[in-house]
Amino acid sequence: MIANSTIEEAAYRVMEKAAIDIPEDYLSGIKGMIDLEKGDLSAFVLQSMVENWEAATEDRRPMCADTGLPRYYVKVGNEAAAEKGFVGIERALRCATARATHDVPLRPNRVHPLWRTDNNNNVGINAPEIEWSFEPGADWIDITTVHKGGLFGTDYRMLFPGDGIDGIKRFYLDTLVAFGKRGLACQPAIVGVGLGGSKDTCMQLGKQAACLRTVGDRNPDPKITELELELKALGNDIGMGAMGFIGSSMVVDCHIEVGHTHTGGMPMSVHTFCLSSRRATARIHADGTVAYRTDPQWFTPYLRRETVEWQTPAEPLSNSG
Q1: Residue 97: which of 118, 60, 122, 72 has the closest Cα?
Q2: Pick the CATH number of 4-18+63-149+279-293 from 3.30.1330, 3.30.1660, 3.40.1350, 1.20.58
Q3: For residue 314, what pLDDT is reported?
Q4: pLDDT band at 64; cut points 50, 70, 90
Q5: Other residues' Cβ atoms within 10 Å of the Cβ of residue 136
Q6: How many whole angstroms separate alpha carbon 65 and alpha carbon 68?
Q7: Based on the number of CB atoms within 10 Å of its own CB, is 197 exposed (0-12), middle (13-18) or buried (19 or more)?
Q8: What are the pLDDT digits (tens) for 159-181?
């Protein structure tokens, strides 16, 4: 039985780590862009970003003054047991958020949408968001926190099947150009694209693609991989660099996630995970030990399954699936 106190402490620690320590995959991606960037101002900004992250780590302070809207992605092993069940987990996560807001500190960004009142702790009605997924044959709980901006850097469009790949590219480029010109994204960004599903699922898939996959990770479908790489190259060829200056460093990486959708449509969402690529994960094992990492490992084969029944990848799928 995993104790609520263990869950709360792990969630508190990932809140702290996400706010302060840049993930190594994103840091390596930015460093790799510096030598390729030919725009003087963009190259200067990229180098300044690295220096800012180093200072944040050394001083143990948030890497960006705007710590976004902290949220959680929780993957629960099917054999895991937590004290007081899922309600206990939710309470622990809300308590950890309130503590981290005060201690790290995180900026208390959450307010009521109408009255603009706040609890000064990033906790409120439907806040923080918690998304759940499950994993067969596991007895651990993974808690991932993401500090996503929450203002801009996201767009949605209902495309149609006839728009095809060209329509996807057109909306993608329209979105990045608009974001860059209007200052709606802090680039270089990890860009997540959601394709398919219902409208709400499409938005979820795009945000998860941006926030829960590491730089360099590729979709297991080889054709989607090709499109990811093509969109990354296109995004860096529109003439915009770091923070909107002239250059070629708009997109650190592009990730695509898909969901089966209505026959008459092709929903698409585009999300940017800004230069403060804030994510951290804790795996809480059944014995109460905790291991920390920066790769959420959210998109497992089980999560991407498309058959009715589930067999492990080593087992053949039946024709009735």
Answers
A1: 122
A2: 3.30.1330
A3: 64
A4: confident
A5: 12
A6: 9
A7: buried
A8: 999 999 999 999 999 999 999 88
